[in-house]
Each structure stands twice: as C-alpha cells, then as structure tokens.
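User: Quick sanity check before I run a bigger batch. Here is a single chain. Can you write out its predicted 3D structure?
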Amino acid sequence: MEFTRVNFRPSFFGDRPLVLLEDGELKATAFRYESGVCGLKIENEHCSMVVLPYMGQQIWFAEFEGRNLTQKSIFDQPLATTKFGDNYGGLLLHCGLTNINCPGDGEDYPIHGELPFANYPDTYAGIGRDEAGTYLAVGGTFVYRNSQEYHYAYSPELRLYAGATVAQMHIDIHNRRANDLEYMFMCHMNWLAVEGSHMVYSAPKDKEHIVVSPTELGGDSPRAVAIREYGKRLVEDPTIGDVLDSKTQCNDPEMCTTIRYKGDEKGWAHAMQVMPEGDACYVGFDTAKLPYALRWVCRTGDEDGIGIALPTTGTNHSTAYQREHGLFNTLAPHAHDQLRFDFGYLPKERAQEMESHINQILGE
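Assistant: Done. Predicted structure follows.
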C-alpha cells in the first residue's frame, strides 16, 4: 500500500479552477463558488463529486454516468453559513458526535450536532494504491473540545477508485480525553427521489425491525391532515413506502423511519433505490458500529430527496432518548474507532446482483 498526500489551504481555491492532483482518469480540481465557499471536484471516468473541504467535508454534488443523483433543493450552490436549514442541498453530511437529530423538549443543541458545518483546518487530497487499485482520496481532521466534557478528533477520508461507480468513506474517531467518549453518529445521504423507484434493503419487513416516526405538523390545514393520514397508514404497513408514489403518499415536509438492518457474512448491510430503468442508487455499511439506518423522504415540490439508508448508531429521536436507550458507541480513553460505509451508483446488472445478495441475507 502507498499514498501520496498533498495538503492544501483555502488560498488555493479561486475564481479560476486549479488542478491539484491528476493520475490517469482521477483528478481533483479546486475552485470557489460565487458564495465564497471552497469546492473540491473529484472525478473518475464514471462519476464526479464536489467536496466542501472547509464546510464539514460535505459532499455537495454527485453525478454518476452523466446523471445528477443529488437531492432536488432550493439551493443551487452552498452558502457561507453554519445554520443547518439555510444551507441544505448537498448529497452527504456528517452528523454527530454529541448529538445527531433535532433537539427535544428542554434540549438546546445544533441540529444534527457539530459535524455538519465543522471547520477542518487540516485538509488534504492524495493518490493511493492498494489491493483494490488506484484511488483519489480527500480528507481532513476536525478537533472538538468542550472543557471537562469532550475532546475528540474526527477524521473522514473519502476514496474514489479508478473505474468505480461506488465511493468509500473511511472514518477515524480518536477519543483524546482520559475518560470514555459516548458518541452518536449519523451520515445524512440525500439522493434524488425518483418517482416509481422501489427500495431493496437487507432488513426484515416487520415492526420489530422497522419503526415509523410520523411527522406531526399540528392543526388541520390540508398539508397537516395529509401527512397525518399518510403517517397512520405507514405505521400500520411500513412497506407501502417501499415504492415512491407521489399520488398515494405524502412526504411534505418529510417522513422518517428507523430500520434495524441485517448484515451479510462480513457484517455489511445493503440498501438500494432501484430506479424504473433498473439501475440503482446504493448504500452499504458496516453494522459493527452502525447497526441502524434511517430512511428519510422529503417530497414537497420544491424539494425531492430520499435518504435511502442513513447509517447511524441510533434513531431519529432526541439526544435524551438516545442516551436513555443506550443508542451510542462507547470509546475508551485515548482509543480509536473506525466507521465505514460505501455509496454510489449501480448499473442494472450490478443492481440485480446486489438484489440477489440482499435476498440471500434475508433468507429469501
């Protein structure tokens, strides 16, 4: 294994694109949006992604085989803000580690924790080679300190291999305190919701493994009534949400479901949005540290997105709920944890192979 690392600074990102690295079909190009946000475009012959290295290492945009599969939103570019709802149009956001969802009653913390807009002063790109081939990597380290409570380092590394349509995310978490770190994590991956698509996933379709959290807007407006009624139907039969159908479903503003997955012989869970043509958006994750995944659907007309599977340590409930129910990982003093998930695009033949694999996991 070998890796050539190139560190970069915000001054590298200007109005004119600057190629930082290039190796065959792999290329990393630095540029700056009109909003002032730095973007790093990485690409191979099959796909391209834009990483925001100084804004949470978010992946703002992803295109596979020339097709944009990022959620539809009202944002045409990332904005220079740290307020969650004022900049929510990207494909992938890291969430955690002190909180992963919206605050509950009496709680006060940033939505989805400190990671979505974390500042990474230590950033890099690089070309690596291992047994799987040659890859382009983008990564960095964010250090979070809170006196007498937290001191950890969070280090994600995105890897895009030559010839691949699926990318890898490798995450190292380092507890730098002398006491245990109880952390929560979720990766919010927001794909384009494609009408008529169906979900294929390695979880038994029963209420023990699938728990719907209906959205409640309050009041009796047509919007509130519509999502309330759909939520009741979804609770009774969660599988009615397995096929995207805007005529019979209501996901305005959103609907969230917690799913406990089964892993294969390697401990990996798998989920797909299989589109009408048979190709698929794909998410796979290691259940050793991430036993759950949320399904998030938002179809308002202005927004059209689906979190096929958001790998997580817990549920979509508040921090108090996660702690009360032990839905967190515990990291010993000065120890490291590694999290791992893959995401990307599968052409029709590979999607069919993955569906067969998922059916084997479920014993079907």
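The chain has three helices and 23 strands.

User: Great, the batch can go ahead then.
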